[in-house]
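I'd like us to work through together how a protein chain folds, taking it slowly. We need material for that, and I hope you will provide a protein of your own picking. Go ahead whenever you are ready, and we will take it from there:
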Amino acid sequence: MYIKMNHNLSRKVVACILIVLTVMYPMYVFAEENDNEQKTVRVGYVNVVAYEEGGEGEYKRGSGYEYLQKISYYTGWKYEYVYGSFNECYEMLVNGDIDLFGNVSYTPERAELFDFSSYPQGKDTYLLYTTKEHKKLTGGNFQQLNGCKIGVTDRSFQEGLLMDWLENNRIEAKIEKFDGYDALMTALNAGELDAIATPDLSTSYDYLPIVNIGFSDYYFAVSKTRPDLLEELNEALYEIQNSELDYNNLLVSRYHQQMSNNLLLNDKEEKWLADHDNTLRIGYLDDNLPYSIQLDDGEMGGVMKTLVDVLGEKFGILVEPKCYKTSRQYKEALQKGEVDAIGPLYSDFYLAEQENYVLTNAFLSTIPVFIYKNPDLSTSRKIIAVSKESLFPEEVVRIMYPEAEILLYEGIEECLNAVASEKAYSTLVTSMRLNVLRKYPVMDELQFVDTSLPAEICLATTKANRMAASILNKGIILSADRLNGVVLAENSYVNKEVTFNDFVREHTTEVFGMSGLIILVLGLMLYRMFINGKKLTAALEVAKREKEHAYQLYLCNNELEAKANQDALTQIGNRHFFFEKMNELLETNEKFSLCYCDLDNLKYINDKYGHAEGDCYIRDFVEIIKSHIQAGDFFARIGGDEFCIILRGCEYDTAVKNLQQVKEIFYSDHTKEYPKNFSYGIIEVREDHNGIGVMELLEQADAIMYKQKKEYKKKFR
């Protein structure tokens, strides 16, 4: 059959064929790469706790900083950090003075000024926060905010959210705008504000949340002058977020979790504690490591002991642990009111509803493990041995494996023996208990395999005592870093007890052969010891005397060195130590900044509050300085209230910035009745110091410090 096609139709057919072939066999075009070229990207850096920490030349960390590094692994970018507040970096981005800036919420108006990444960097929750002095604002009655002064960062996304929230709730409050978070929180701490609106602080400050005012995704923003960066940025974000599921949330939560150390109890929680004599009674299971155990002295052991300790340390709560042998016993104790909470417990909301329980957050996550003997895994779930003290009691196993036949036993050892004798095909434990269970010899006969069901371990209370769960949740947050660290490792291991009969039964031939060899060797050793006994005894006596003499000499040398170089009150370097280090630096022509500090008001504090309080004042100053200097810097007390800091490799401006930041933090501490302050003078010493002496430098720094002290005294009067 002949088909006639005109020219246009032929072209359309060919085009369709090409489209089909392109879809079926796509052609990839690779951009040319030059590994030797590295783009420099100017990045706005805001130096905010947990997001971007560290100034110029300082150690950097934080979720935002880590995200930038991750992006550079895909793009090959090299960063030039440009420091400033949010508003300063925002303006630089608009003006093209920086190329990239993170943590920017999207608005159509902003999209006209710069480009946004296609994929979000994260999600922000915005809240109102206040201080303990305005605790009444946290009661849930938002009308109390009428007439209050609320601070917010100028031109931030939360500024619009705050205005909308106040309007929707018909609240008339005065909004004060600030250039950055530091100024905002300084005003709140100084009592100039009643509340502030910020992204979630995640308990990193000693503030109380009032209300959630909204959410938003935030993005990386790219200057309009650098369109070449946007495509590379989007490709990197796509790779990161698709290869590492939930990367954004996990990254942020990891840094926020490290800061969760200032949680406070609210009014309802404090009232519950007051009604219960500040006591929380917790029922726990015996012989259930790593979670809990009753020690030989009757005290509580295991991972839960750490939670108990944290509740006492952080909130001053008296915790009374009570031990029970089976899960049925401590559940009955909870219902009778003998205890306020029980644990450890498998976290299952359906089972909790049947028992009318309130579950806490999980304090550990684990994986259920089948312990079995028969190599045919398909039979392992048919007959399951269940222990009465197990975290997987009968009701839990019936939900997980409804077709299984369940055999109940008193303890886990009976369950393991049942599996070994094949009365049961398996028993179910948490993966964290495997090392603990190795103390039972029968485990050598058994195997284990993970299930596909993750399990969370929590505590439970009744709905009548639901405030106890709220208190426990805060303790769980505060103890998270300990529960998953050394504490868990220590309580997940026990020495396996193996009897001599067990060993002989398994290694009969080796035991007899080794016994004969040992007897022969012992005979030879005894003969040689008899011949050389007196010589050996004499040599040991001489060695013992020499060792004791050397040890005493070592202790004396250490003690003398410590006294010569260490200040007794503060444990930092003393005047001798300082002069020694200064001379070394001057001789080697090393660049550094000398900071001469003098504590203000020490005589006043000594006279009014006593020298013990004056010593405390000095130690407070020393601790805050130690936390803000680097490992290679030197810090010494050269007089009663006089201190010197040597910042190695540090220029004058950086030294002033660091000392001023420390001074503001020290001054803003209002935990004492008296004001905290210190005056300082800074001298920058360059490599070409032309043989200047230590005393000359001290006199110069002292003169600068004295001027600052005179200004402070004027204000103090």
Observations:
- The mean pLDDT is 85.
- Residues 508-565 form the longest helix (58 residues).
- The first strand starts at residue 40 and ends at 45.
- Residues 289 and 476 are 18 Å apart (CA to CA).
